[in-house]
Amino acid sequence: MRPGERGLRELDEIDRKLLRLLAADARRTNASLAAELGIAQSTCLARLNALRASHVIRGFTVDVEPGALGNALQALVFVRIRPGARHLMSEFGKAMTEVPGVTQAFFLGGDEDFLLHVSVRDAQDVRDFVVEHLSAHPAVANTRTSLVFEHLRGAEPWG
Amino acid sequence: MRPGERGLRELDEIDRKLLRLLAADARRTNASLAAELGIAQSTCLARLNALRASHVIRGFTVDVEPGALGNALQALVFVRIRPGARHLMSEFGKAMTEVPGVTQAFFLGGDEDFLLHVSVRDAQDVRDFVVEHLSAHPAVANTRTSLVFEHLRGAEPWG
DNA sequence: CGTGAAACCCACACGAC
DNA sequence: GTCGTGTGGGTTTCACG
């Protein structure tokens, strides 16, 4: 790694296993993690803090059933940016992540420029979202919406 | 709700705030959560366990920087299922989530049937993935791949 | 359901290797 | 980097409202 670059220090086998265990249950106690890794608690804690400090770990979150809070409908919205507004793309993406209901935003290469994953109550909410935040936006050329019948999470890439 | 049914009991304001706090940092101590919510620790723990038991909380995970483990490239792969193989779609989706590198699978309505989000090392890996797991699969009619330049996570829907 | 109190267990410094 | 230990604080149970 070049000096001054953000720390992407090599991860050893223990680091990877630690990440894998946390991916399965991020609320496990440090003691139980250490036991399964076969290292001392203090060592395990030091590694965990190092992974946080070096931004390998971005954070710990809870995975919530979307339907539990009245968000029964998910959709993917493809967005094409107006050719004359390409310089607004990065800004546009960030703005979209602030909109309630938008859970992910992909900045794409290819036919379409953006893909937004939205989780909302019903079809009316999707329409409102597209009309209010996309069609009205000066940078947006056009959009295309697909309903999500099922959303599956894959195995974490460091399996 | 009928007894024995999967609990989608109403969430009150405290439950929602609890989920929001956990979304921001899933490893916060129960004590600090209780303090911020203005309830007793034991009450907070009881609510947390209830949310887990009723499957409102699916789990706690760690958010890892994808590049940190050598996965520098992300792509979206759209998949069209062969008309005669529609009955294999559900099975196909589950199988895809087991493939290393596949982080998400969307089961779609619209032009295309599936969208796969893959996180891999380089372009060669994308090609290998498409050739080995998609083109060769009897249910797959055709695929289309878009590179992901940036992947942003949105605010959680219960903000 | 909610709570306070108490036993138990854990997190997180240290200092040493 | 790794480890063992101590102690302040957290987790969890339980009897009670």
UniProtKB/TrEMBL annotation, chains A, B:
| Coiled coil (UniProt feature) | none
Q: Which PROSITE patterns match?
A: HTH_ASNC_2
Listed GO biological process terms: response to amino acid
- Which InterPro entries does this one have? AsnC-type_HTH_dom, Dimeric_a/b-barrel, Tscrpt_reg_AsnC-like, Tscrpt_reg_AsnC/Lrp_C, WH-like_DNA-bd_sf, WH_DNA-bd_sf
Taxonomy-wise, where does this protein's organism fall, top ranks first? Bacteria, Bacillati, Actinomycetota, Actinomycetes, Micrococcales
Specify whether Acyltransferase is a keyword of the entry.
Answer: no
Q: Which UniProt keywords apply?
A: DNA-binding, Transcription, Transcription regulation
Cross-referenced Gene3D superfamilies:
3.30.70.920, Winged helix-like DNA-binding domain superfamily/Winged helix DNA-binding domain (1.10.10.10)
Signal peptide limits: none
- Entry's Gene Ontology molecular function annotations: sequence-specific DNA binding
Q: Where, by residue number, does the polypeptide cross the bilayer?
A: none
Residues in domain HTH asnC-type? Answer: 11-72
Protein name (record) = Lrp/AsnC family transcriptional regulator
Task: Spell out the GO cellular component terms annotated for this protein, sorted alphabetically and separated by semicolons.
Answer: cytosol
SMART domains for the chain: HTH_ASNC
Q: Which organism is it from?
A: Galactobacter valiniphilus
